[in-house]
Structure prediction request, 342 residues.
Amino acid sequence: MPRYYFHLYDGYGRSPDPDGRELASLDIARAQALKGARSVICEDVRHGRVDLTGRIEVLDERGDPVLTLRFRDAVELIVDETDRAGGAA
Amino acid sequence: MSNPWTMKMEQFTAFTPQQKQRLDALMTERQQDYAPREDILTEDEPINECHVIVSGLAARYKLLPDGERQIMAFLIPGDLCDAEVFILEKMDHSVCAIGPTTCALISADTMKGLLREISTMSEALWWGTMTDLAVLRERLVDLGRRDARERIAHLVYEMLVRYRLVGATGDNVMPWPITQDELADATGLTPVHVSRTLKLLRDEGLIDPVRREMRIVDAGRLREAARFNPNYLHLIRTDEGARQVSHRAGDLV
Prediction:
């Protein structure tokens, strides 16, 4: 099985994945990246902040990027339009 | 230097030199090596003998039908994988090696003989089981009430105390063959989340994880971050100041 590495880039900088993970397909790697991004967003929410500027870069065994998952693509954002002017947009 | 199994039990009970020799012999008589990720005990299979970790690191785990894994405990030198050998027909979970691991094999009959020979042995084993349960309770608190930073800080600090008590390290550096995936399975976090939390703890100057080793840079602040209270490790003889045992724990507890 191919090995994928999931490196996280967010407001705290780069969090490297030194060991990687053997996964059957790129689709599974995408699902894992999505789960990872959502878990990190959850933790931030728990501490009262939402930062969707982060991303997870997935590399293959050769170190070539195969997938980038942006946090803002990991969640559906539903915001009250009247709040938008001062808020998240 | 004694073997780690004796050292673990010494936190509760004292042994005579003859008893120590007997335990030393048992730890070296029959040994088996396991490669990383190899099962030492497998769910639904019968257990015939006791496995005591001599060196390396193992994990108690359960696999779910979808392939997800929960690690319930990390077992370090001196830990008994299967105190249930007398009672259980089949394992209800598995134990696998995390790094290269060596176990001493002790047959159920030998263990029964040992319990007769050494009067304090059954109490020591009982104490060991109780302490293992207390460690498991901390994992329960992790999942229910501690955030990611506290969970990882707590686990790292606890591992250092446990490694110190069995003489596997004398300073603030310990073996750490645990991958971020395995740490995720043990803390109920995702690997990405573990990665970020380790990075934050490193940036704060508390720990320095390098390949296969974990260095505790600031034990005092790590203890604060973990809100660590060592009472659940029941270090009875350490508290009493039994010289060798308390010396091993050092300033950590």
The beta strands of chain A are 3-10, 13-15, 21-22, 55-59, 65-70.
